[in-house]
């Protein structure tokens, strides 16, 4: 019998619920605060920008939250996603490690992002919302919400970080093909964007700026809401469909991860894979090493401060306690645009502070090198964001080889790089460099943290 490479589930095995790690936290999250009063936010505070069902999920402490039938029906277009055993990569590395990857690039948008775009569009449509505004970095989230908007007959407006808007024209074309309106951020369409352009006319933009623009636009009209592609509790909740599937798939091959690895920008793809396993550990199950990998040019977990901060540059959002580089921080224009966010998901930040998650940072050159090594062995070109997880996995596999250990390594290949070939072209031509953030830049951004 040939050795299994791909473990697949039937559509009937698609999870019927999402997993909420808030139910199992050893210490509760710090409350989200109203920036004016510094009191915990209420559902009414969030109602102008989110539908009621999403607000309830954001604040829930129930362990299991059911996936609505129409959402499961939409998921069936690509879910369950395959779990691969990277046997060719193992052979190339001559490692005794058992390498697995959950491949989320099989979705229509090419990444994990539809896992939350679909339910957010569903809940908005169910409550009579006509239009959703959002931001996007690399374009994976904007592409996914554009897809979801077409499925649920919603108008979608996407503020795309300017450097990515210019680097990734095919992502813009993808969004527009599904009927979304894509605007380079910072833009002159909002007060937040105009303020940035007045001070920095050549700004490359940031996710924090794009969030400000999208939130401002959503607050102007009663028929419009805002959707976020990462960071918030309900987003990480929706992404756990990937980890729940992976648990069943690993059981089918009689294995269990010693280490779970994911790239982290806002935290959603890492949490989506890791949280079901971490929740099992918190309930007394097997101990697993959880590694969150970020870019050295935007080192939120490794060099940021765990403090209350705004989620956006224009200070339109509530205050959340998270690892942050400061809401005014504008990261360099490296190619992993989905990881260029000044903050980190409160749940991921909290669990990192408690010692359950180990962060790690890499430069973009070593990540592209790892991505090509993976591609030449496994036949899939990863998105630049996913290359960070690939790099960490290869490093761990080499450590296993040197130590003679056979560990099971599981990582989230959260998207393919088919829209990112210019980045690979630039890398292969030697036109990329490692971007750096100085201590002075970080100190300046952190000096603007709110006093709470």
UniProtKB/TrEMBL annotation:
PROSITE patterns according to UniProt: TRP_SYNTHASE_BETA
Residues carrying N6-(pyridoxal phosphate)lysine: 113
Catalytic activity: (1S,2R)-1-C-(indol-3-yl)glycerol 3-phosphate + L-serine = D-glyceraldehyde 3-phosphate + L-tryptophan + H2O
EC numbers, comma separated: 4.2.1.20
Domain of life: Bacteria
InterPro entries in UniProt: Trp_synth_b-like (IPR006316), Trp_synth_b_CS (IPR006653), Trp_synth_beta/beta-like (IPR023026), TrpB-like_PALP (IPR001926), TrpB-like_PALP_sf (IPR036052)
MF terms (GO), sorted A to Z: L-serine hydro-lyase (adding indole, L-tryptophan-forming) activity; pyridoxal phosphate binding; tryptophan synthase activity
A Gene Ontology term for the protein's cellular component: cytoplasm
Pathway, per record: Amino-acid biosynthesis; L-tryptophan biosynthesis; L-tryptophan from chorismate: step 5/5
Alphabetized UniProt keyword annotations: Amino-acid biosynthesis, Aromatic amino acid biosynthesis, Lyase, Pyridoxal phosphate, Tryptophan biosynthesis
Function, in words: The beta subunit is responsible for the synthesis of L-tryptophan from indole and L-serine.
Similarity remark: Belongs to the TrpB family.
Subunit record text: Tetramer of two alpha and two beta chains.
NCBIfam families: PRK12391.1, trpB_rel
Protein name, per record: Tryptophan synthase beta chain
Gene field: trpB
């Amino acid at each position: 019998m040939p050795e299994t490479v791909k473990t697949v589930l039937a559509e009937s095995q698609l999870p019927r619920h999402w997993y909420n790690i808030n139910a199992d936290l050893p210490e509760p999250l710090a409350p989200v605060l109203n920036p004016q009063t510094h009191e915990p936010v209420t559902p009414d505070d969030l109602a102008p920008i989110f539908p009621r069902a999403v607000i309830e999920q954001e604040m829930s402490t129930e362990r299991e939250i059911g996936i609505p039938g129409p959402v499961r029906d939409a998921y069936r277009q690509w879910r369950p996603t395959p779990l691969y055993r990277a046997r060719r990569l193992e052979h190339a590395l001559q490692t005794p490690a058992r390498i697995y990857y959950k491949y989320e690039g099989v979705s229509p948008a090419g990444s994990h992002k539809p896992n939350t775009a679909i339910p957010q569009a569903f809940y908005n449509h169910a409550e009579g919302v006509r239009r959703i505004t959002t931001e996007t970095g690399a374009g994976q989230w904007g592409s996914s919400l554009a897809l979801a908007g077409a499925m649920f007959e919603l108008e979608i407006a996407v503020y795309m970080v300017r450097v990515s808007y210019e680097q990734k024209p095919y992502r813009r074309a993808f969004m527009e093909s599904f009927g979304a309106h894509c605007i380079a951020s910072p833009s002159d369409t909002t007060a937040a964007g105009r303020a940035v352009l007045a001070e920095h006319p050549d700004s490359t933009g940031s996710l924090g700026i794009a969030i400000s623009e999208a939130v401002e636009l959503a607050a102007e009209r009663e028929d419009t809401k805002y959707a976020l592609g990462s960071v918030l509790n309900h987003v990480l909740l929706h992404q756990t469909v990937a980890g729940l599937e992976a648990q069943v798939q690993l059981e089918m091959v009689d294995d269990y991860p010693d280490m779970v690895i994911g790239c982290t920008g806002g935290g959603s793809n890492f949490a989506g894979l890791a949280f079901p396993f971490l929740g099992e550990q918190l309930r007394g199950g097997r101990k697993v090493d959880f590694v969150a990998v970020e870019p050295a040019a935007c080192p939120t977990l490794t060099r940021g401060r765990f403090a209350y901060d705004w989620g956006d540059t224009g200070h339109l959002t509530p205050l959340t306690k998270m690892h942050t580089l400061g809401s005014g921080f504008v990261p360099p224009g490296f190619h992993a645009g989905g990881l260029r966010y000044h903050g980190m998901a409160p749940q991921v930040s909290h669990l990192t502070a408690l010692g359950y998650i180990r962060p790690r940072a890499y430069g973009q050159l070593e990540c592209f090198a790892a991505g090509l090594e993976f591609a030449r062995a496994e036949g899939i070109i990863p998105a630049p964001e996913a290359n960070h997880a690939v790099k960490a996995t290869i490093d761990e596999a080499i450590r296993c080889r040197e130590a003679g250990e056979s560990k099971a390594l599981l990582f989230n290949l959260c998207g393919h790089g088919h829209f990112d070939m210019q980045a690979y072209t630039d890398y292969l031509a030697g036109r990329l460099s490692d971007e750096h953030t100085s201590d002075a830049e970080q100190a300046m951004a952190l000096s603007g943290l709110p006093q709470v």
